[in-house]
Predict the structure.
Amino acid sequence: MTPTVARGVDVGAFPQTQTLYLSLAQQLRARVDAGEWAHGDRLPTERALASSYAVGINTVRRAVGRLVDEGALVRRQGSGTYVAHRPTPRPRGTIGVIVPSLSYYFPAVIEGIAEIADAAGTTLHVVSSEYDDALEMRRIRHLVSSGSAGLLIAPTLHMTDPTPRLDLLRALPIPVVLMERRPPYAAPDDTLSYICTDVIAGGYAAVRHLVNRGRRRIGFLGRCDTATSDAAWEGYERAVADLTLDRAPGAVVRRRIWDREALAAYAQHARAEQLDGVVCLGDREAAALLPHLRDVGLAVPGDLALVAYDDEEAAGADLPLTAVSPPKREIGRLAAATLLRQLGRSGGGTVRTMLQPVVRMRASSAPSIAPRDHALMQSLA
């Protein structure tokens, strides 16, 4: 059988809380457990895996060696590494999936879930909570009562007191894995598993990206009512402190709604304070800011560079926007693989994994280019 190679995996998607080879072993194990590589399949070569995951060959060798020691893989001299024989897994039934939106951010997460579920022969029941707390509670109860074997959920913890929601999830008679959400102020022995983007790291990376392009007076324009708003702002603040950047008065503004008047006022302030970079949460706010910057005579990226957060609509803006891009598909893949392991015979303990986002550079922070090179910049989008 022709070996497969991991698709589009960024090195930044590895958790930052453990040794790199252990993180790689965890991801390879998840792919085996989910059935992506069946019994007897030959894995890609160590060199191919190293290239696919952007790690050194010694890291791959140690990760594969760990799985061989665990009995998940076997090495055959002169032939390669193969998936070891394992008992046929029991049917896993239906997995319930609850996300706040089926149109923004989470479609890529759902694609990752479906990829693993399809390989394991598991059915998905996907519903949206529409950022409605009461509806989300009903969705949870319905999926459990209708026979879902496990639950993947991105709960709306930021809108009201999350305690009742989290207590309900902990008490469910089926395994639960949170996606892109962590229980706030959880005890060290909390039993809820989660797979999340490290949003603080994303906010930090956005500032570092701008600093690496010579920017020193960097503002933050963001929402203050989203699940990621506080963490993205915290990452920005930590980067500004760590990199000893200038703090322009009024450069940080967070609002529930960014209307035309508010955007125009921020653009005026950016000009007055001579900001040369802005981190925007999220894509829509960054795209809406562009014409107001032009109106006050600021060229992007010549005078002021922009970095958005989310990377949902950034590439399609009038000027393609550099954006912090969370590993959404990999979040779905790892969440599904974690839940399937918990549903298997061996079960599994509580899992807490943070994946690091990457910054995808586009025209809003790229070096100035000649018109003849415009096609090249479009390809970056």
